[in-house]
TrEMBL record:
EC number: 1.2.1.84
Keyword Lyase found: no
Protein species of origin: Drosophila pseudoobscura pseudoobscura (Fruit fly)
Name of this protein: Fatty acyl-CoA reductase
GO molecular function: alcohol-forming long-chain fatty acyl-CoA reductase activity; alcohol-forming very long-chain fatty acyl-CoA reductase activity
Length: 368
């Protein structure tokens, strides 16, 4: 080993790099196509040919991200076997809980994007299962767990150096918990409950529906996404503005479908290494490097979630007067939304009642 001063090396993977399995242990699973073969194919063929081979290369994986993460684990496991190295698998990383301050984030990847678009009135229909576990953790907890993992890897390597049996595999840490793991439905509900600072230029109030059926989702999305997009683009065309909504909703639709692959399923994970690590840390260090998912108060967390996205990602530092104006507009949209829902519901009941009465009138005639 050339890096003689190396104390610990942590490879950051993802909890979903083996999402083609139902139960995921804390071990490295061999890829169907070896990582060396993947590298050879990538160097041999051009981008157009690689795109045609895409489905063959990723196999049962949902996308190239998870497939390449799995390949990287195999590479690290083979090449770093005699080094103080380990693999850390974080779940979906969200904005911070407390450090450096509540709600900090610099991206809208994954569910954060969908939730933000819902809060701005863009996304109204989500394809997924509300009861499925979301497996998400605040970013500061993830960083703390990574630092603690680096310490544990160094500790394990020192112990293994004194033993005669050589390692056959690197330690793997599935950063997940069976306790305090919220569902997708709870994620959206808590986000809406903690939403108290409306975004600028919101199209509608924060309303959504989570649909587990693909045909039903497409039907509802047609009315809640497609039709409004064409209407808004028509208004933009008439007023001489740029048409952006149809194109934006097509992109959003692709993201919703991609997210649904994870939102419709649940996995079982072993997490013995991460649990033991939490117990091994001295009490003082455990307080500083807090990463125990059971200690998260999700209601408290979501009170600063969307406001943090507004403030730190969109750089929206609106003063109290502007926020008050937005809240007034938002309350009006919420009132209109409730009125439309009530009107639609009553109209539907009246239609069903008329159909029922017609059938009721026809039935005696048929009997005669």
């Amino acid at each position: 080993m050339e890096m003689k001063q190396l104390k610990s090396f942590v490879h950051i993977s993802t909890l979903y790099c083996n999402c083609n399995r139902k139960f995921i242990n804390e071990q490295v699973y061999e890829n169907e196509i070896g990582y060396e073969k993947i590298i050879q194919i990538y160097r041999t063929f051009d981008d157009e040919t690689l795109e045609k081979m895409r489905h063959c290369l990723i196999g049962q994986m949902p996308n190239t991200y998870t497939m390449t993460k799995k390949c990287a684990e195999n590479l690290v496991n083979h090449r770093a076997l005699h080094m103080p190295a380990g693999i850390f698998r974080p779940p979906i990383v969200m904005s911070t809980y407390k450090d450096p301050f509540p709600g900090w984030t610099d991206n809208l990847y994954g569910p954060s994007g969908l939730c933000t678009w819902s809060a701005r009135g863009l996304v109204r229909c989500i394809y997924g299962t509300a009861k499925c576990k979301a497996n998400m953790v605040p970013a500061d907890y993830v960083v703390n767990a990574m630092i603690a993992t680096a310490w544990d890897i160094a500790r394990r390597f020192k112990i293994s150096a004194t033993e005669t049996d050589s390692k056959s595999e690197l330690p793997v840490y599935n950063y997940v918990s069976d306790v305090n793991n919220i569902t997708w439905g709870e994620y959206m509900r808590l986000s809406r409950n903690g939403f108290h600072e409306p975004f600028d230029k919101a199209l509608w109030c924060f309303s959504y529906v989570i649909i587990p059926s693909k045909p039903l989702h497409c039907a509802i999305a047609f009315f809640l996404h497609n039709i409004p997009a064409y209407i808004l683009d028509l208004i933009a065309m008439v007023t001489g503005q740029k048409r952006i909504y149809v194109k934006a909703y097509r992109k959003i639709s692709r993201i919703i479908d991609m997210m649904a692959w994870f939102g419709l399923k649940e996995w079982k994970f072993s997490h013995r290494n991460i649990d033991e690590l939490n117990e091994l840390l001295p009490r003082g260090e455990r307080t500083v490097l807090q990463f125990n998912i059971a200690t998260i108060n999700w209601s408290e967390y979501f009170r600063s979630y969307l406001s943090g996205i507004r403030r730190y990602f969109f750089k929206d530092n609106a003063n109290d007067n502007k926020l008050q104006q937005r809240k007034t507009i938002y309350r009006r949209m919420l009132f209109l939304h409730t009125l439309l829902k009530t009107t639609f519901g009553l109209s539907l009941i009246m239609c069903m009642l008329k159909i029922y009465l017609r059938i009721f009138k026809i039935m005696p005639k048929i009997a005669l």
